[in-house]
Amino acid sequence: MGTAIETAGLTVRLGGFAALDDVSLTLADGAFVAVLGPNGAGKSTLLQVLLGLIKPSAGNVTVLGRAPGRTSGIGYVPQLKTLDRSFPAESCEVVLCGLKRRWPWRLSAAQHAIAVDALSKVGAAQLAHRAFSVLSGGELQRVYLARALARRPRLLLLDEPAAGIDVAGEADMYDVLEAYRRESGATVLMVTHDWGAAFHHATCALLLNRRLIAQGPPATALSDANLSETFGHTGHAHAMGRYGEDDSHA
Fold first, then answer.
1. How far is it, in rounded angstroms, from Cα 131 to Cα 87?
2. What CATH code is carried by the domain that includes residue 206?
3. Are 133 and 85 a contacting pair, CB within 8 Å?
4. pLDDT (tens digit, 9 = 90+) per residue, 149-188?
């Protein structure tokens, strides 16, 4: 099995503040990785480094065997709160924009079919001609996931993809991610605050608080000691139900 992502001594300083400090990790091809940590832990900064949007202050990074920003085959689903919903577009146009890397001013029949197929795979074919501005949080997340998957990425990066969607939509999204990973062999790296989702779906969990606290199978990495060191408090429950529900007091 090859390596999808590798960092050695990765350090990022932003205005004198160490957003990431000496982070070294290796993530295998085909893994489903959950990145967890408190606010300000550097999780989104890590994604931006992998995308080539932020250059490290120190250390080395390789993504799919190449330097960040020089790698093709990456899909990205941003946080919902960063998106401008006022843009006058239909969902199918947004999906095709990710595939063509430019705005599709006119859609051919073949391009329209590609967009609808991508939306179908995330359970959103009915949104193809829905105005972008009227989509709910869950619908918007499905469109952006379709946009990323239409490119058939070898590496899929997601920044808090469950934020703003309901439990049913969250469950569907994880099912789509797992199905795509199994079918394509792609690596999925997801920033999340949901320990339950990480525990149930990820093959590898990273605990990050500017430095790497733990990396490994969720059952090992999400130990009380590691969670306490990462989040700075105790009392974590491991008997988690589906999608983050705590069953320890049921």
1. 9
2. 3.40.50.300
3. yes
4. 988 999 999 998 877 676 767 777 888 899 999 999 999 9
Among 103, 187, 98, smallest CA distance to 149 is for: 98
Continuous segment of H or E residues that includes residue 3? strand 3-14
Alpha helices in the chain (DSSP H): 43-50, 91-100, 109-121, 137-149, 167-184, 195-201, 218-221, 224-231
In a domain, 21, yes or no: yes
Contacts of 19 (CB under 8 A, 6+ apart): 12, 13, 42, 45, 210
**What are the backbone angles phi and psi of residue 116, rounded to the nearest 5°?**
-65, -40
H-helix or E-strand containing 75?
A: strand 74-77
Average pLDDT, integer, range 85-93: 78
Residue 145 and residue 122: Cα distance in Å, rounded? 7
User: Token pair of 2, please?
Assistant: 């090859």
The pTM score is: 0.86
Mark whether 16 and 50 lie in a shared domain: yes
Contacts for 231-235 with beta carbons within 8 Å, 24 or more apart? Answer: 231/37, 231/38, 232/38
* Residue 118 included in any domain: yes
